[in-house]
Amino acid sequence: MECAKTRILDLSAEQLKELVTSWGEKPYRAGQLLKWIYKKSAGSYDEMSDLPQEFRRKLIQETVLFTFTTLEEKVSNDGDTRKLLFQLSDGKTIESTLMFYLPNESRRERRTVCVSTQVGCPVGCYFCATGQQGFERNLLAGEIIEQIFYCVRYIKQQVPTPDHELARKAITNVVFMGMGEPLANYENVRQAIILLNSKEGCELGARQITLSTAGLVPQIRRLATESLHLELAISLHAATNSLRNQLMPINQKYPLEQLMPACQEYFEKTGRRLTFEYALFSGVNDSPQNARELAALLRGLNCAVNIIVGNPTACKEFRSSSLAQAMEFQKLLFTLGIFSTIRVSKGTDIEAGCGQLRSRWIQTEG
Questions:
Q1: How far apart are CA 180 and CA 339, in angstroms?
Q2: Is residue 25 one of the residues assigned to a domain?
Q3: Nearest-5° angle of CA 152, CA 156, CA 162?
Q4: How many whole angstroms from its chain centre is CA 66?
Q5: Which range of residues forms the domain containing residue 122?
Q6: Helices within 276-365 (DSSP H only)
Q7: What is the pLDDT of residues 231-248, one digit of tens each?
Q8: How far apart are CA 221 and CA 262, in angstroms?
Q9: Are residues 288 and 335 in the same domain?
Q10: What pTM was estimated for this model as a whole?
Q11: Hey, which residues are catalytic here?
Q12: Last residue of a domain, which of 35, 64, 93?
């Protein structure tokens, strides 16, 4: 059933202050409430011990803090990936993924949450399990944030500590790479990012937040004017219009002749280097010629390529290339002057690819 109460997580700091003062409370009560939610990761209003009982009673009557029901959790064999299937208050379902990365010589330890921004996806990439589900609705800002808080509370349970400030340390990175196209839900995603980044919120650094887009050109240009300074990743997957049209229908609306200048504008206005995501599919876009076309397209742009060895989906036309093929592709890019990394998708054994767990759930329910 749809939630009729005010969702606290949907409110900005200013909106929360307005709500609290409309009840006759002092403005500083909003600050206390924000601290309990974003700094101490309280799981309920009852935990907020320094709030007056009458104020907590009003919160319980008029608002709701968390709204999700957990339908399924799957943990990878190595324990490093946890896939979550949530049911929203209106009965719709979304996925999130919590990933643990051990430190090595080139990176610190990371605990990353991959969040969804929509129920389904309107972009419809042919190789993506979510794209094959269609689009139902945008997520609210609070529904985006709640995915992260669920993971924070899970980590707190695994690492018991009296230090309430763990809420700010539990999650090191958030990536907007789950179900949906983030820039097609611009306002709610923007508000969620502000709450994650702000002093009143989680104080997560801008460099710790990555947004991935299939290439919505007007929104990329708008994002370039914002003060969010997050990391932007472009799902490219092909370096020619003819091939990209076969993979991503969005390219017919925003072809490379429009997308690449928008990317250049983003870099010039923000000074932030872009990442281009390139999922390798065997016999589709992983040839030496494809690598040369990619290098030619990106030459002169301050960027990096993230080569992805992906998870399989029900679409048999697009099968992931081998790691050996990915390394050959990377080697050729390097000789052509393009910096790249290889990302091997985590959680293959638990359907951790975008939309896979939900696809099975939908089929079972249907």
A1: 28
A2: yes
A3: 130
A4: 19
A5: 69-365
A6: 288-298, 323-335, 356-365
A7: 999 999 999 999 999 999
A8: 6
A9: yes
A10: 0.90
A11: 95, 354
A12: 64
